[in-house]
Fold this sequence. Notes:
Blueprint: H1 6-18, E1 40-44, E2 47-50, E3 55-58, H2 73-83, H3 94-106, E4 112-116, H4 119-134, E5 138-142, E6 155-156, E7 166-167, H5 174-177, E8 180-183, H6 188-198, E9 202-207, H7 223-234, E10 237-241, H8 254-257, E11 264-267, E12 278-282, H9 284-287, H10 306-347, E13 353-357, E14 360-364, H11 374-377, H12 382-394, E15 397-398, E16 407-408, H13 415-434
Parallel strand pairs: 3-15, 5-8, 5-9, 9-10, 10-11
Antiparallel strand pairs: 1-2, 2-3, 4-12, 6-7, 11-12, 13-14, 14-16
Ligand KE4 binds near residues 27, 63, 148, 212 and 213.
Amino acid sequence: MNISRNRSLGLFENAQAVIPGGVNSPVRAFRAVGGNPPFIASASGPWMIDEDGNQFLDCIGSWGPLLFGHAHPAVIDAVQSQLRRGWSYGAPTALEVEMAEAIVDAVPSVEMVRLVSSGTEATMAAIRVARGYTGRNGIVKFEGNYHGHADFLLAKAGSGVATFGLPECAGVPPAATADTMTLPYNDIVRLREAFAVRGKSIACAIVEPVAGNMGCVPPAPGFLQALREVTEASGTVLIFDEVMTGFRLAYGGAQQRFAIEPDMTAMGKVLGGGMPLGAYGGRRDIMECVAPVGPVYQAGTLSGNPLAVTAGLATLSLCRADDYGVYKLLDQVGALVANVLREHAKRHGVAVTVQQVGSMVTVFFTEEPQVNNYADARKCNTQKFGVWHGAMLNEGVYWPPSQFEAAFLCSLVGDKEIDLISTAADKAFKSVAAF
Ligand code: KE4
């Protein structure tokens, strides 16, 4: 498909003069795959239209929020109705009570919850509360997991079995990550060793219960259970970062799907249905540390914003419709797309490992039969992924522009959309085979 990109190219040039990299979040700049990003003019259902009139099947879904596709009529109607009543009061509303009660009802670990405006705020606040609750400073996170851009989370693994972290980007002072220990994802032995040495100094362990930020990597058998055991034994607060998995892998998130209950949960993305909304919650005794009840301060001008909460409530209502039928559909869509991609890669002799959990899918360009952690993921051939991504885009399929991301399929992906993915993948894997 020869697509004209002139308007997007011109906009990208203008954007780069006034916005770092021309984008408001780095991954959107296509630097991991090469080429230039389409500038989106409109979207509806599973489709996006760029400024040059090209149509794409959207496999990103705004990086997770759009479980039901773009511009869903039910969300539009709810938001339009709220707009006429105003959209930000800086005062408590019935909407926030309804949302908090919906979260408490949906998420097994949550007895009390605070609404914020992003996933970063949710994880940052959850960790501060865990530190305030335990009186400890140590944080455990896992390589390849991303929890937003709070300084103390931008840490890379120190050397040795239980050493604390080093800053992984400029601008983060060593002191900010000095208490952050980064362990290999899915490594139960290293986890147990670290907690044997440091457990009593660890305030919290935060984990993506299904990883999406190194590509889709499911928890190894026993990993989440081991994490629950060692944190329980050491008095460490276990935080599930369900910003990506929450309300996507099940209505109760990965913790419902895998039947493991953390002490706290960070949420976002689907919760707001594409509007800026995050949340953190958990056990009542922990959440009652939060101001104004307790001594841990956290605040936000637009926290619980009526418009965002309205969009979120309309989205959660769609999640519950037809006896939560969307989740079975999303599992089927994810499995179908994963199998189509495997078949075309095999036909063209391209070595890939396709990993899928529910509607989260990643095509790893690797000879490894499985990708279990960040070290495995880093072995991927990112150049081949870039060739494949560009070919998919030229065929009208907008896949996440990074090997280390997951695609987020929506409930509106049906036969027509899967046929498009199949046609595009056939050509894209052919391009990679010739690369
Ligand atoms: P936000 O602050 O971007 O709303 O959420 C941060 C965050 C927290 N936890 C998890 C598990 C996340 O995946 C994220 C953000 N996810 C990325 C996608 N890898 C958002 C896309 C982007 O950064 O542009």
